[in-house]
What we know:
Helix 1 (2-37) runs antiparallel to helix 12 (218-254) and helix 5 crosses helix 8 (138-160). The chain has 279 residues and is mainly α. A hairpin with a 6-residue loop joins strand 1 and strand 2. The longest helix has 37 residues, at 218-254. It contains 13 helices and two strands. The two termini are 24 Å apart. Helix content is 77%, strand content 2%. The protein is elongated and about 90 Å long. The chain has one domain (2-278).
Amino acid sequence: GIAAAVESQLTAANGLRAAATAAYDGAREGIDEGVRSGTLLRGEVLARWQEFVGTGEWMRALQSGVSRLRDRVVSAVTGRPTPADGLQGALENSVERLLRAEADRAAERTVTTWRALPGGAALLAGEERDLEQVSPDFPEAAAAQVRDWQGAVLDLVRDQGADKRTQARLLSWGVNGAGAVVMVAVFAQTAGLTGGEIAVAGGTTVVGQRVLEAVFGDSAVRSLAARAREDLEARADELLRYEQERFDVLVDAAAPAPTAADDLRAVVGELAAARRAAA
């Protein structure tokens, strides 16, 4: 009787947890697809990318073996915004939108599924409107994670350019410029840069693998893009774990302890044994 009822509650709780997990795993897959498909490299990002390399100066410099782009150095010294700054800003906005869209979708999917599951509607009562979208502090948290990710990419670029020969080329290019290209590489290729070229989705601007190889070399380029992608995925995972926790907390507060049914059966058994012994 009672133990069976508790067991039923545990089954319902596990079903609710599984529904939330499935929804947020789906969000992770959506973010991964968004990162790897190149779809982020459209609109403002594409416009900024074309501004970044569209004059042809950068590619002409690389093709001729000349990497000293003095205008970028002057911009950095004088504090004027550079095309790299604009590209990084556009990428930041694009990634934030992806994170928000997938987190919103996971929240809505969880609420929709819970409504149809035993115990779900009761847990949602009065909180559906808040729970079917991201938490209030998600936009700020996502923006901070994306900015921190961009900072981490620039740190990777600096670390990769630590030796004197690379450092000289990197100084000519600028850390922000090299970092911006690494960020584009994260979204432009599924398997690094071995395909030879980064083709910006939906656009005509194509920049050769030599863009980064000119500074770092082939193997380092693949490593930089892979490490930057892994770092972004880890940050996205952290955000989604925080969002899913809102649902897990509701289940934990209402669900019996995992061992409750077995504990009840043990107590009933002990009572029955005591009665028999006393008879």
